[in-house]
Amino acid sequence: MPPRDAELFEYLLRLGDTDVVLAQRLGERIGHGPILEEDIAMANVGLDLLGQGRLWLGYAGEVEARFSGTGRTDDQLAFLRDGSGFRNLLLAEQPNGDFARTMARQFYFDAWHQLLLRALSSSVDARIAEIAAKAVKEATYHTERSAGWVVRLGDGTDESHARMQRALDELWMFTGEMFAADPLEQELARARIAVDVRLLREPWLATICSVLAEATLSLPQGEWMQGAGMRGGKQGVHTEHLGHLLTEMQFLQRAYPGAVW
Amino acid sequence: MNRHSIGAGNLVAGAQDAVLSLPNLAFVWEALAAVPDPEVPVVSIVELGLVRDVEWHERELIVRLTTTYSGCPAADTIRTLIREQLTAIGVANVKLVAQLAPAWSTDWIAPEARSKLRAFGIAPPHLTAKRVDVTGISPLRRANVVVPCPLCGSSCTSLLSQFGSTACKAQYRCDACREPFDYFKPH
Predict the structure, then answer these.
(1) Which end of chain B is more exposed for a tag (fewer CB within 10 A), N or C?
(2) Do A40 and B163 lie within an 8 Å CB cutoff?
(3) Which domain does B69 fall in, by range?
(4) Alpha-carbon dihedral of residues B72, B184, B163, A43, nearest 10 degrees?
(5) From the CA of A146, how many Å to the nearest CA of chain B?
(6) Phi, psi (5° rounding) for residue A26?
(7) Is residue B142 part of a domain?
């Protein structure tokens, strides 16, 4: 059914773009990690996300071909769309900041990501289920790692505690979007293709609370400023940071269109 | 790339009449078992469980492959190595199919490969059942498993980082012989 494919395409962009944008952010950390081991770890987490992003965008291109006649490749989707064409979560595009901020962003995301992927692994869309079942194993490992750093820094020195608390507080307002389902997502969720992300908030919050308690950190207060969920990254309305990220990520294809290895 | 075609010379002799009759699948599996993993060359792609199925479809060989991790950078190299090896035994009409499900697990690594990994200085993965349950809601802590040092065998080792030289490994240090080593993560 053509309308369903157009919506599915949009949904797959949300999944894929979030992975690719966050992978790019983690890639920026290469050579700038606090220690070599963490430098490598951030690159590897980014690599997992990039691989997952390519699977989602590859599928998106196939779906696009079904309703529009021509489908773009994963590379074309990643490198040749402008910022307003991206459907990633706002959290993913936020700058790395210090190590605490990078890990706070990762922890908020990972805890949500593993819940999302676990739920998507029972999607009635076989390809979505397969990609999610593969990706959830990676996401679970990522969560173990980022949660570990939240505890280490939170329950560390006064300085590391203060920085982690500040990072958690500053990024909090971007977390609401992860649990906001617009009509498109609600319809796909009713068809059991997508997940109703509103149902993930409670288990996510339980994970966040238990880790923050162990880390001697406080749960940030306040509701998400864009809680209605109709005007955010998933709808193509981004923070100022995405454009800067894309100028670097897309430079090669913009300067030398069509260049291949 | 010649070193990646170990054994191909012998294998070609067995495939001489491939023009008339297609090589049987056991022969194909044997050839694929000689293709080393590019990042851990001490084990083959078959031992790692990356080759899921091989079958003839008319005169085309269908090879179903999985990847270890979604973003494994060796995936393209592995495909190239497979094509080279199959060409070396006279099979040029090959279709490589990426298979996502079931997701790859270290539990598929062949028992003999585990000792090869250890001899290479990489601690082999525990079976995933020994890990914490990863299906729960907040599986945030790793199981308290002992990872014995592949060099001296000591059980006194500590985790340095959850990631090592590749996405599939973690970094450990032996507290007895003081040597660092990679641990193939249970996945």
Answers:
(1) N
(2) yes
(3) 2-98
(4) -10
(5) 9
(6) -70, -35
(7) yes
| CATH class of the A2-255 domain in this structure | mainly alpha
Q: Is A161 exposed, middle or buried (0-12, 13-18, 19+ CB in 10 A)?
A: middle
The count of domains in chain B is 2
Q: Distance between CA B67 and CA B174 in Å, rounded?
A: 30
Closest CA to A44 of B147, B54, B167: B167
Asked whether residue B104 is domain-assigned, the answer is no
pLDDT one-digit tens code per residue, A54-81: 999 999 999 999 999 999 999 999 999 9
DSSP class of residue B15?
A: T
B44 forms bridges with which residues in the sheet? B36
Asked whether the beta carbons of residue B70 and residue A148 sit closer than 8 angstroms, the reply is no
Question: Are A140 and B134 in contact (CB < 8 Å)?
Answer: yes
Residue B133 has pLDDT above 50, yes or no: no
**Is B139 within 8 Å of A51 when comparing Cβ atoms?**
no
Between CA A249 and CA B71 the distance in angstroms is 17
Whether A125 contacts chain B with CB within 8 A:
no
Chain A: closest CA distance from residue B53 (Å): 18
